[in-house]
């Protein structure tokens, strides 16, 4: 999943980014309301984590403007306040869920996954390619009925390829979907993860589902290879 975190406490934002990336999320950060609103309208996110107390434009106004523009991306609002009126205002403004600081990171991740499941965005129950089955909700992968253990990042790359339904996905598209739009590391990291996928979901089963399209990117065979 691709997540936008709009949080002006930079240490908290960085901590969330590191933790969510470790879970296989692609995470973009914004540190004020106007920056967050711009990012939310310029990019496609699966879910937005939105602090209420933001400089320049508070979270309520960001949420209201997104909803007024017809943006139905799930929004989980964060606040240091704790009270029924704050929760009610967040939900009335258009937020889908509410979490007060300090919060449990485990609960945050669970709520993000639940939000995406409830809204039905990009999470069909199972993606099937021949005998290769990918379950985005449970984060599981099986080949010929055998579970294949993947790291969070490997699963995210596989899911990105699966979503293309046999189409070609460029290295840049994978980086933006699985890492984030500001990734400035070695782009060959994609090749490393693709190679790992081939070792795990193809080689042991005598398949070749993950293909390279020279000069264009990668493709997951619709028949499972």
TrEMBL record:
List the Pfam families. Answer: Response_reg, Trans_reg_C
Q: Which CDD domains match?
A: REC_OmpR_CusR-like (cd19935), trans_reg_C (cd00383)
InterPro entries documented for this protein: CheY-like_superfamily, OmpR/PhoB-type_DNA-bd, Sig_transdc_resp-reg_receiver, WalR-like, WH-like_DNA-bd_sf
Specify the Response regulatory domain's residue ranges. 2-116
Q: Residues annotated as DNA-binding region?
A: 124-222
- Keywords in alphabetical order: DNA-binding, Phosphoprotein
> Sorted alphabetically, which SUPFAM superfamilies does this protein's record hold?
CheY-like (SSF52172)
**Which SMART domains would you find in this protein's record?**
REC, Trans_reg_C
Protein name, UniProt field:
Response regulator transcription factor
Species of origin: Kitasatospora phosalacinea
């Amino acid at each position: 999943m691709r997540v936008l975190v709009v949080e002006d406490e930079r240490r908290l934002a960085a901590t969330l980014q590191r933790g969510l990336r470790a879970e296989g999320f692609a995470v973009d950060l914004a540190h004020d309301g106007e920056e967050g609103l711009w990012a939310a309208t310029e990019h496609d996110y699966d879910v937005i984590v939105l602090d209420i107390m933001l400089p320049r434009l508070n979270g309520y106004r960001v949420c209201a403007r997104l909803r007024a523009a017809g943006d139905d991306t799930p929004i989980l609002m964060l606040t240091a306040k704790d009270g029924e009126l704050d929760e009610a205002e967040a939900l009335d403004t258009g937020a889908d869920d509410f979490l007060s600081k300090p919060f449990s990171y485990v609960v945050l991740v669970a709520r993000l996954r639940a939000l995406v499941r409830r809204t039905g965005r990009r999470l069909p129950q199972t993606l099937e390619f021949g005998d290769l089955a990918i379950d985005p909700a449970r984060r599981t992968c099986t080949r010929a009925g055998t579970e294949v253990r993947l790291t969070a990042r490997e699963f995210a790359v596989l899911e990105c390829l699966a979503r293309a339904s046999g189409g070609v996905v460029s290295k840049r598209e994978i980086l933006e979907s699985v890492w984030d739009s500001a990734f400035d590391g070695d782009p060959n990291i994609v090749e490393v993860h693709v190679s790992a996928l081939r070792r795990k979901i193809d080689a042991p089963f005598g398949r070749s589902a993950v293909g390279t399209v020279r000069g264009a990117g990668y493709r997951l065979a619709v028949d499972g290879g």
